[in-house]
Amino acid sequence: DNNPKGRHLHAIKPKVKTKVKHETSARRKEVTLARLKFGKCRLNDYLHTIKRHETGLCASCQVPETVEHFLLKCPNNRTQLALKNKCQKLQIQLNLVNVLTNETLQDLIYTTLERQL
Q1: End-to-end Cα separation, the chain, in angstroms
Q2: I want to staple 44 with a disulfide (CB 3.0 to 4.6 A). Which of 38, 65, 93, 95 is the partner?
Q3: Do residues 82 and 70 make contact, with C-beta atoms less than 8 angstroms apart?
């Protein structure tokens, strides 16, 4: 609980079990969702961390392109708009924990992605 590593996933899922739970049989979807939960995906902020992107900033907003920015805040992202609308319909708060743990929202993320993560 106090280790500085893995803070991104700990914020989403504080109790991690040793048994791997496969939520879907589609491997590509499972990999994409796991990358988002770990924060280790092809978004500019992480690419900058591993020295694969010059600035790490979102091309349209000029702020760090983190998982949170990409899924919840970027107005030029089709996934963000779809999540916002779906959360309103489901009457749940639009936040990273809800988005990455709710199965309906996970399906929506995967189907609306316009780029490979």
Answers
A1: 28
A2: 65
A3: no
